[in-house]
Amino acid sequence: MKTVFIADDENNIREGLKYIVDWEEAGFEICGEAANGEETLNGILSKNPSLVLIDLKMPKMNGIDVIMHARERGYRGKFIILSGYSDFEYAQSAMKYGVDFYLTKPIDEDELFDSLYKIRETIEKEEEDSQNMLHLREKAKDVILHELVTGAGRTEGSRFSDKEAQEMHLDADIYQVVIYENFLRKLNGPAYSFADLLKVANKENHTFEHFEEDLKDVILLKGEYALSRFQDFLSHYEKEPPQKGSPLDSLFLAYGSPVTSLEQIASSYKEALSLVSRRFFCIQGQHTLGYDELPDMEAKEQTLSDMSLQDFSTRLVNYLQSFNRKKVAETLYELEQYLYNVKNDISEVKLFLTDLYLQIKEKMNYSYAMAKIPFPSNSAIIELIEKQYYLYEIIRFFSEQFEMIMNSTGNPSRDTVLDDILYYIDHNYKTNIKLETIAPLFGYNSAYLGKIFTKSTGENFNSYVDHMRIEHSKELLMENRLKVYEIAEQVGYKNVDYFHKKFKKYVGMSPAEYRKNIEE
User: Fold this and answer.
1) Strand-strand pairing, 2-7 and 288-290
2) Which residue, among 303, 304, 326, has the nearest Cα to 315 in the 3D structure?
3) Residue 84 pLDDT
4) CA–CA distance from 119 to each of 94, 112, 254, 266 (Å)?
5) pLDDT in tens, 70-118
6) pLDDT value at residue 486
7) Which segments in the chain show pLDDT lower than 50?
8) Which of 93, 194, 293, 397 fits 180 for a cystine, CB–CB 3.0-4.6 Å?
C-alpha cells in the first residue's frame, strides 16, 4: 500500500481531505499530517511517504520551500500542490521541483481521485522499472564477478576503474578467494553453507561475494576484516578437529593467496582451484588446504613411468614373499611421496595404482598358485580404486590386502628366518634368483647370509637352488608334457645347454636319458 502525507494549515481542510476520497480504493493510506512548513518537512523526511498533499501558503515555511528542501535532502516521492491561487508563477516554480499536480481549492473530488490514480500508476511503473534495473544490475554484476574471479572473458591488460569497483562494492585493499565443498564428498552439496556462516560472522554487508562456478561454491573475501575472520576459521581447524555434525565438520575449504588488486584475484582463484583438484592427497580428517601447500607444478619434472611401476611392483612382491612388513610399510610411504611429486593428473595416478595392484596380484598368483589367495576380482579392484577420493584410502586398502597376502602365503611350519628364506626360494626358483638380491629382503648382507645358509643346509646357496630346480625338472620330465627346452625355461634356466650340464651333474644322465629310463 502506498502512503500519503497531508499538509495544510487549516484543520478543516486536512479533515476534509481525509474523507473526500476513499483512500484505500485509491491505493493509499494516510501516514501523517502537519499544520506548518517545518512540521511538514520533518514529517516528509522521517516518514518518507509515497505522496505529499501540500498547501502553498503555510506558516514557518511555504510549500515551495518545503518541496525544495525535501528534494535537496533526498526525498524522491510525489507532490500534489493544493492552492487557493491559480497563479502561473506558483505552478511554474512547483513544476521545477518535480511536482506532479497543481490543484486549486476548493478541491474537486473527481479531479483529486483522477490525480491519485495517475500518481499511483506512475509510482508502480517506477517501482517495476527500478526492480528490473536492479535485477539487470545484479545480473551484470554476477557476470562481471565471474569474469573478475575466474579470469574468463577478460582481455589482457583490462582493468576495473575505481568508480566501477565502488559501484559494485568491490573496492578493497586486499582480497582472497576461497572455494568450499562438502567434506563428505559422497553427499551432494555442503550440508552447511560457508557463505551463510560468513554472513553471521561478518557484521558488514560488503565483506565478501559468493557465487557458483562449475558446481563449486566460490567466496571472494574483501578487506582486512573479512580476511581476519577467515583466519579465525582456519585457526579453529588447526587447534582441534571440529565436532562431528557441527557446521565446520561439514566443510572442506581450499584457499588461494591474498592479493592486493582486482586484477590479481584470478591468480588467487587459480590457486584455490588447483588445491581442490589436489584434495586427493589430503591426510585423513584434513578440512583445509591452503596456497602454502600448493607445489610448484610447473617446476615438477617427474612423471609416472613404467620403470617406476615395475620397481615398486618388484620390491613389494619381494617384501611380501619375505614377510618383511617393515619394508612393505616403508615402500608404501615411499610410493605416497612419489605420487605426490609427479605432475600427472589424479586419474592417471589412480590408473598407476590400479596397474600396480594388478601386477602384484598376477606375480603372487603365479608364485603361489596352490595358496589360493582370496584376491578381489580385477573389475572390483578397478572400481574400488577409481571410487576412492583420497590417496590414503587406497594406501590403506593396499596395506590391508598385503597383510592378507602374507597371511595366505605364509609357511605355517617356519620357526626361523632361514625357514622363511627356504620358503621364498621354493616359490621363486623359477626366476633369476640370487643371494645378493634376497639377502636385503631378510635384513642380512649377502656374505653373512651365505655363511649361515651353508652352515644350516650343508651346501651353498647356488647349489641349493640348482638342486631345487633339478628336482622340479624331474617332475616335469615324468609328466612328459613339455619339451626339454620348455622345461629348462620353466625351472629357471634360460640356456638349455646350461640346463643339460647342470642336470647331468646332479642326476648323472641327460634329461632325455632320464625321460627314456622312466618310460622303459
Assistant:
1) unpaired
2) 326
3) 74
4) 16, 10, 53, 48
5) 988 989 889 998 887 665 566 666 677 778 888 888 888 888 888 888 9
6) 92
7) none
8) 194
Three-class SS of 223-254:
CHHHHHHHHHHHHHHHHCCCCCCCHHHHEEEE
Q: What is the pLDDT of residues 253-268, one digit of tens each?
A: 999 999 999 889 999 9
Which runs of consecutive H residues, i.e. helices, occur in 375-495?
A: 378-387, 391-409, 417-428, 435-438, 446-457, 461-479, 484-490
Q: Which residues contact 445 (CB under 8 A, 6 or more apart)?
A: 439
d(CA 255, CA 218) in angstroms, rounded, equals 10
What is residue 162's predicted lDDT score, i.e. its pLDDT? 62
pLDDT at residue 404, rounded to an integer: 93
Q: Going by C-beta distance under 8 Å and a sequence separation of 6 or more, which residues neighbour residue 142?
A: 211
The DSSP bridge partners found for residue 175 are 222, 259
What residue type is assigned to position 285 of the chain? G
- The single residue listed with the C-alpha cell 511555504 is 62
Answer whether 54's CB lies under 8 Å from 7's CB.
Answer: yes
Cell numbers for 117, please give them. Answer: 490514480
Other CB atoms within 10 Å distance of the CB of residue 497: 10
Unique residue bearing C-alpha cell 617406476: 308
For residues 353 and 343, give the distance between their C-alpha atoms in angstroms, rounded to a whole number.
15
